[in-house]
């Protein structure tokens, strides 16, 4: 898993560099805005996540029952994907975007029809502990995408829709491979629609779905608010700097995914889990700070290396945003506690607060400070996430102490 994620991060950085240099500052701005719209719309497809599917698959190993569950999950996700694709078009129409945004958005939006519906096969693989095929499919698709982008870059193509088609090709190929892999092993029984099962899946996954919508909205709403209020070049520079940080903060998720199963989820007592989470949060903060400082001091070199001189204005934005990004490392660690407690509503509350505060600050700060106002919103949102995590950690400690006193 670590090797796969590492290759994906490295490949993602290389692909973004070719996109920026190939399309230029304004073309890259068009592309990034389209990606932001699609990213938010894609959150609506996470309606029946693996958090709901995998436990049910593990609880009932019968192949026919699993096929029935996966079929209903696929149907729910595909229906949500169609709705999300329509929402993309509706937003572009309501915001009166030109064809330079419409075309790449609708091309990139094709991914929402495929990624999550066919991604349900990944949940099936997880339940059967077959992670290797999915890793191979992901890396194969990534290699094809990188090859197509590299070919367009080598040919000197500047067309944003052409690069968008190359990007969405990864999802098309991965979906096809996942679908073929499952269908060769699935029962041939016909599945009748069960409205009761549909309601159960929707109900059980509602809190997770709301959390994902708010989280993904919080991470991209800044770009939707920024683009109409600043020159396109400034928006492109901001998007370029945030793209670097998106790849950087993935490290936090990778580290926690490797640490949490043993040091948090396997702990028999809340007290030990809390102590370990505090240690993990402290260590993650140090890692985040070290990386953020390294990015800050080498921002000019990083921007020049990846994007070229046309994106020179992104360096100062990257320096400030990098300092704020270190908080994400602490937040990811502190979020392990609500997951350990199996209280998804706490995660939903956190992202709801972050989403609201991000919008409030951006609406006030962006008209005055432009892209720097968006960075202010990013920093405050990250700080709020950490403070919320600390509050939950302290509250659970007080509850545990009160319980011990009562029992004594």
Automatic annotation (TrEMBL):
It is found in: Cell membrane. It comes from the Bacteria. Keywords: Cell membrane, Membrane, Transmembrane, Transmembrane helix. InterPro entries: Poly_Biosynth_Transport, Polysacc_synth. It is a multi-pass membrane protein. One of its GO terms (cellular component) is plasma membrane. The chain crosses the membrane at residues 7-24, 36-54, 74-95, 136-157, 163-184, 196-217, 237-265, 277-297, 317-341, 348-366, 372-394. Its main location: membrane. This is Lipopolysaccharide biosynthesis protein.
